[in-house]
Each structure stands twice: as C-alpha cells, then as structure tokens.
Amino acid sequence: MKRPPGRGGRLSTLVGIVLLAVMLFPVYWMVNASLQPAGNTLRGEWFPFHPDLGGYAAALRDQGPNLLTSLVVALGSALLSLTLAAPAAHALARFRLRGTRVLLLGVLATQAVPGIVVANALFGAYNDLGLLNSRLGLVLADSTAGVPFSIVVLHAFMRGIPEEIIEAARVDGAGRLRVFRSVVLPLSRNALITAGVFAFLFAWSDFLFALTLTTTDTVRPVTLGVYQYLGAHTDHWNAVMATGVLASLPAAVLLVLAQRHVTGTATGAAVK
C-alpha cells in the first residue's frame, strides 16, 4: 500500500513550487510587458486585461529578417554539426585505435577555449576568404561549438550499441557504410536529436560570433538585433519585450518537442 507523502514531502513540493515561480517570473513579466500598450510598460499592470499586440507588430516589422537569419544559421549549424560528428563518433566508437582517448580529450578541451579567442582568429581568416557578413560564415563559426559537443554525445551512445547487432548486419552482407546508415544511425536517433537540439541552441543563442563576424546590417542574427534594439527603443518596451518573446519561442518549442528524446538519451547512457 502506497503511503501518503509526509510533512517533509509536502514541504519539499512547496519549496519547489516557490523556486519554480521565482525562476519563471521574469519570463511571465516579459510576456506581460509585451502585451502592454506602447509607452513605459515597466509600470504596467500585473496582468494584461486589455492586451495590445502593437509591440509584436513592431517587433516583426523590425526584427523579422533577423529572426529568419538566426533560424537559417541555427538550422545550418545543427545540420553541419551532425553531418561531421556522426561519422566521427562512429569511427571512434567502433574502431579501437590507439590514441582514441587522447583524441576525445582533445575534443573536450576545445570546449574550454574562450569564444573570444576563436572569434578573433576567425575574423582574420574570414576577412581573407570573404566570409564576413555571410550566413555561411556564421554557420561555420557556430559549428565550432556544435561539432565537438555532438561528437562527445554521439560517441558515448554509439559505444553502447551491442557489437552483435553490427556483426549480424555484416553477416547479411552489409558494408561499413550500409551498417552506419541503416543500423547505427536509426539506433542513435535519440542521441542525434539531442546533439542536434544543443547544436541548434548554441547557434541560436550566439552573440559573440554575431558581433565579431558581422560588420554591416546585411546579415544580423536576432541576438545582435535585440542588443541594438534596446539602445534605440527604450521608450517602447512592449516592442522590446515582444522581440524577446519571439526570440525565445523557437528554442522553447524545440526543447518541449525534443524533451522525450533528450531524456531517452540520458537514460540510455546511464543504463549503459
């Protein structure tokens, strides 16, 4: 018979609810302020009884191209990261080569390199290659964070795929490429989605590369757009907050949709 939660359990639940409310309050206030009429919405009502969508109209008008740029760059970075990381992780997991651990340690070490160091180095190279102020340049730059992380995540998962499954496919006549495409990738779906989600989030939230590698208004991600928007529209906080809401929606929706796969990857890694 299941015992009802005691006083300690109820207290923990209450504390959790209070902490969750405190953490989510800035998000609530951002949404609330975005629905207030134009003007000083910092003194707006606690609840938008008469919501005004003028802020969203202004945000879409001013930041729509920047949102599209961020979406293209983030999707491109996620796709490139998975394209490079999946075969690399499979090779490191399947082929027992000397120095594999050292190589993985080197991949992890790249995550500790300060972003400003990478951005400064890329600026000179991009200037020579003509990649400044281009979406391709931002995709390549953001992939410097997505590829190493994806390799680590995919390697940890692919290493746990039973060798018997690989050998059974080889006995049936499948080559290494066919095994990778038809066996390893489908089995690694949760890990691929997890790595892709984080690669997308890395690129979507990037500010440093956007600030360093774009010098004109031709290509401007939404993170840089919001930064510049704040300085020019401090008297229209509803538009500023609406921009923040629109910039948060893709990441929030993606995390909600991929939550089951991310949890499955973590659970599978823990079991293995």
UniProtKB/TrEMBL annotation:
PROSITE patterns in the cross-refs: ABC_TM1 (PS50928)
A Gene Ontology BP annotation from the UniProt entry: transmembrane transport
Subcellular location: Cell membrane
Keyword Transmembrane helix: yes
Transmembrane parts of this sequence: 12-31, 67-90, 102-126, 138-158, 179-204, 237-258
Database matches in InterPro entries: BP-dep_ABC_trans_perm, MetI-like, MetI-like_sf
Gene Ontology, cellular component aspect: plasma membrane
Topology of the protein relative to the lipid bilayer: Multi-pass membrane protein
Domain ABC transmembrane type-1, chain residue ranges per copy: 67-258
Coarse class of the protein's main subcellular location: membrane
Alphabetically ordered keywords of this record: Cell membrane, Membrane, Transmembrane, Transmembrane helix, Transport
The keyword Transmembrane helix appears for this protein: yes
Pfam annotation, one family: BPD_transp_1
Family: Belongs to the binding-protein-dependent transport system permease family.
Name of this protein: ABC transporter permease
Species: Streptomyces rubellomurinus (strain ATCC 31215)
